[in-house]
Specification:
The protein has about 475 residues and is α+β, with helices and mostly antiparallel strands. Among the domains are: about 10-70 and about 80-170, no CATH class; about 325-400, no CATH class. The chain has helices at about 35-40, 50-55, 120-140, 175-185, 190-205, 210-230, 280-295, 305-315, 315-330, 345-355, 360-370, 380-390, 395-400, 410-420, 425-435, and strands at about 20, 30-35, 65, 70-75, 75-80, 85-95, 100-105, 120, 145-155, 160-170, 235, 255. About 50% of the residues are buried. The protein binds adenosine monophosphate and magnesium ion.
């Protein structure tokens, strides 16, 4: 059946200052790797055409473009980034009435490629595919994966030549904090205003003006980061260009899920100082919102009053994060109505897990099936905690929907990539099946619950994506 994508593009109607129009660069021999039929159906897409998802054919109704943005990378402002290896094909309005971007990632160079080749290799493409779809099934706001296609072309990375691939990403939008920063830093106030109006209409229609938008983004980002913490997710590159206005997780680069719990855990090989360590993520989310505030203040006439209001909005965020964290972790230990007084009980469990290297996912999942104790060395300390916990725990059912039985573990993802490079997609398919229902694991997948053996541990994930 011929492919039909019901494009309904809005970003492409904004002025030229926001993007560069260009087509994806064709690839040598496109071969399908993965196709998300359920998502396609939700988006009203019918048929299939690998040539489109490789970038070899531009589909009817598309308005291909590379978006402009800037951003703070590891705390330092980079005045121009932009889609260096991605092309927005256009937007569709799904069956749920929500507008979504359809973007090719790894689709060739753009004016924003700087030193990059505009390409992606198969490993990070499949990692993003699995991780983003797993996050969706876990109930965490995220971009989605529609397709992955092998290009038949080698991509040169530190490890040597690797097989190239293109990911088709679906997002509520690709508006980032960095999209606002570029116009604010350049003093392009008209563009900043246009962008703000566009973002409010598209994502936060209830927001009143620039500071209303700031407050709305703070709220969705606070919820997002609390959701990450609750499933042990480490984003790895929380730069302001990887921080969305919609509140979706975006850019699965050197991301990872915790095995054994440690709040200081870092996997990204480029994060030398641990800026984006697991436990730092709430603080960084607030820092990122301060950058958005700095940009949006420029639209306010009374700067002094705006600074005061924006400061109050950003300062409210730690409280929002804390409340969302307590609600989620309270549910994880079976509390119907977690209160501030319950926080020490949760923190005590996390401290015991950290001291004993207990597995994050399996400890919480083990609270309801009684196996949590097995993961501790100091069982006396765990028993003392569990005695207090049993007295307080009043909603055991809350635990089954708050504690996944599986998450995409780093070693399983690495093994899946190794197999895919060798032409075997069976481990990918198996992971996708198991991760589709993480709170209700089907029979036959129990092996995927196991933490890595010592020789399977993945110490670092690489940015050489
Ligand atoms: P990321 O760390 O993936 O969020 O990327 C940061 C910036 O680098 C973005 O502007 C990307 O488009 C750009 N970039 C990353 N990898 C490449 C590549 N292989 N070729 C061109 N640009 C890239
Ligand atoms: Mg990025």
């Amino acid at each position: 059946m011929t492919l039909h994508i019901p494009f309904d593009n809005s970003y492409a109607t904004l002025p030229d200052a926001f993007y560069t129009r260009l087509n994806p660069t064709p690839v040598r021999s496109a071969e399908p790797l993965a196709w998300n039929a359920a998502l396609a159906e939700d988006l009203g897409i019918t048929g299939q055409d690998t040539a489109v998802f490789a970038g070899n054919t531009v589909p009817d109704g598309a308005a291909p473009l590379a978006q402009l943005y800037a951003g703070h990378q590891f705390g330092n402002y980079n005045p121009q980034l932009g889609d260096g290896r991605a092309i927005l094909l256009g937007e569709v309005v799904g069956r749920d009435g929500l507008r979504r971007d359809i973007q090719l990632k790894g689709s060739g160079p753009t004016p924003y490629s700087r030193m990059g080749d505009g390409r992606a290799w198969l490993g990070p493409v499949l990692r993003e595919y699995v991780a983003s779809e797993a996050m969706h099934a876990l109930g965490v706001p995220t971009t989605r994966a529609l397709a992955a296609v092998a290009t038949g072309e080698p991509v040169l990375r530190e490890q040597g030549p690797l097989p190239g691939a293109v990911l088709t990403r679906v997002a509520a939008s690709h508006l980032r904090v960095g999209t606002f920063q570029i116009f604010a830093h350049r003093g392009h106030i008209d563009e900043l205003r246009t962008l703000t109006d566009y973002a409010i209409a598209r994502h936060h229609p209830e927001a009143d003006g620039p500071l209303g938008l700031l407050a709305a983004v703070c709220r969705v980002q606070a919820e997002l980061v609390a959701a990450w913490m609750s499933v042990g997710f480490i984003h790895g590159v929380m730069n302001t260009d990887n921080c969305t206005i919609s509140g979706e997780t975006i850019d699965y680069g050197p991301c990872a899920f915790l095995d054994d719990y440690h709040e200081g855990r870092v996997f990204s090989s480029i994060d030398q100082t641990g800026r984006y360590a697991f436990g730092n993520q709430p603080r960084i989310a607030v820092w990122n919102m301060a950058q958005l505030a700095t940009a949006l203040i420029q639209l306010c006439d009374d700067k002094e009053a705006a600074v005061e209001q924006a400061t109050a909005i950003v300062h409210a965020m730690p409280g929002q994060l804390q409340a969302a964290w307590l609600r989620r972790f309270g549910a994880k230990i079976g509390l119907a109505d977690p209160r501030a007084e319950d926080q020490p009980l949760i923190e005590e469990l996390l401290a015991l897990m950290q001291a004993d290297g207990a597995d994050f996912t399996n400890t919480f999942a083990g609270l309801h099936d009684g196996t949590a104790r097995d993961g501790f060395k100091d069982t006396d300390a765990f028993d003392a905690w569990a005695a207090k916990w049993r007295v307080r725990m009043d909603a055991p059912d809350a635990m089954t929907t708050a504690n996944p039985q599986i998450i995409p573990r780093n070693h399983q993802i690495e093994a899946m990539i190794t197999a895919a490079v060798a032409g075997d997609m069976a481990p990918f398919e198996r992971l996708m099946t198991a991760l589709a229902t993480p709170y209700d694991l089907p029979d036959g997948f129990d092996d995927l619950r196991a933490p890595p053996q010592p020789d399977e541990v993945v110490p670092a994930t690489f940015c050489g994506t």
